[in-house]
Design goal:
This protein is mainly alpha-helical and 327 residues long. It has 2 domains: 12-256, Fido-like domain (Fic-like fold); 258-325, Arc Repressor Mutant, subunit A (Orthogonal Bundle). 62% of the residues lie in helices and 5% in strands. It contains 14 helices and 4 strands. Helix 2 crosses helix 3, helix 7 runs antiparallel to helix 8 (185-200) and helix 12 (258-272) crosses helix 14. The longest helix has 24 residues, at 12-35.
Length: 327
């Protein structure tokens, strides 16, 4: 019988985060049917995909990721486009995975990396070190131990009765420590934590945790390193719970002001009709003179909610850029 137990300590800080997150999740569950539209859910998925890829150095950005998500062609390297396509595929299948099944994780890695790695869906066969700003910061376990370590981790995942919020963080850290694949470990680790959270509360499918991790990327790496130095995942659990709480609070706060934003977006849509217009042309129709206010309160919210589109999404900052209402 497998008795593996990942090392971590339940601190008062962790308990407080779990309590706060539980309260915020309950609030979001009440609000979600009213505030999370299908467009906003799509928007969050795109933000999630963009965030998790940007952490790994993908430079395409949210506009191009959105275009690929919508089946449009974009300019970019073959690898970066393949990374986006793989991420879209695997996040689109998230609800079909069983977080307790190792075979499902291998399938997810194959979906994510099949256009990039010849051994996608298989554990690495070489020893590796994980690099940081100061060189190698973590020497992963030898490749010959990977299968047994992953089997132990999934055995623990099935039997543990620890709170799912904590469980998701412990798994994320332990997975990154083992570093079972030759590439794609960060993306799969974040994906699997999202899957565990979604299994706990479906409302997590509407929360773009990965995009908030990207906003705190250095702290993410620091927490991984701190836990590695300590020999237990406590620091990483505290960091990730903070990120989860922040993401939920941002979602609630952003949506509570959506009525105000939508009034301004409605005015923008009303003057655009079905024609391509430049920023200055739209501002003239709205009788606005301050470009920053226009972008912050009118143009960007309309783009983020997928209500308007760019004529040239490959060059979002182009002086010749024009916009129209999506059909």
């Amino acid at each position: 019988m497998n008795n593996y137990e990942p090392p971590f300590t339940i601190t008062p800080k962790i308990l407080n985060f779990v309590s706060e997150i539980s309260a915020e999740v309950a609030k979001l569950e009440i609000l979600e049917p009213k505030i999370i539209t299908s467009t906003l859910r799509k928007n969050y998925k795109i933000r999630t995909i963009t965030g998790t890829l940007e952490i790994e150095g993908n430079t395409l950005g949210i506009e191009k990721v959105t275009a690929i998500f919508e089946g449009k062609r974009v300019l970019g390297s073959v690898r970066e486009i393949a990374e986006v396509q793989g991420a879209i595929k695997v996040y689109g299948n998230l609800a079909n995975f069983n977080y307790q099944k190792l075979d499902d994780l291998l399938l997810a890695h194959k979906m994510l990396m099949s256009e990039i790695l010849t051994n996608a869906g298989s554990f690495r066969t070489k020893d590796v070190g994980v690099g940081g700003s100061e060189g190698v910061v973590h020497v992963a376990p030898p490749s010959g131990q990977v299968h047994n370590l992953m089997a132990d981790l999934f055995s623990w995942l099935k039997k543990t009765d620890i709170h799912p919020l904590i469980k998701s963080c412990v798994f994320h850290y332990e997975f990154e420590f083992i570093h079972p694949f030759s590439d794609g470990n960060g993306r799969i680790g974040r994906l699997w934590q999202s899957l565990i959270l979604h299994n706990y509360k479906p409302v997590f499918s509407s929360i773009p945790v990965e995009s908030v991790i990207k906003e705190h990327q250095q702290r993410y790496y620091d927490a991984l390193e701190a836990s590695g130095s300590a020999g237990e995942s406590t620091s990483f659990i505290e960091f990730m719970l903070e990120i989860i709480l922040t993401t939920i609070q941002d979602s609630i706060n952003n949506d509570q002001v959506s009525d105000y934003v939508s009034d301004q977006v409605d005015k923008l849509l009303e003057v655009m009709h079905d024609q391509w217009l430049s920023s200055s042309e739209i501002m003239d129709k709205l009788a606005l003179s301050h470009k920053l206010t226009f972008r912050k309160n009118y143009l960007n919210p309309a783009l983020e909610h997928g209500l308007i589109e760019m004529r040239n999404p490959d060059s979002p900052r182009s002086p010749q850029q024009k916009y129209r209402v999506k059909g």
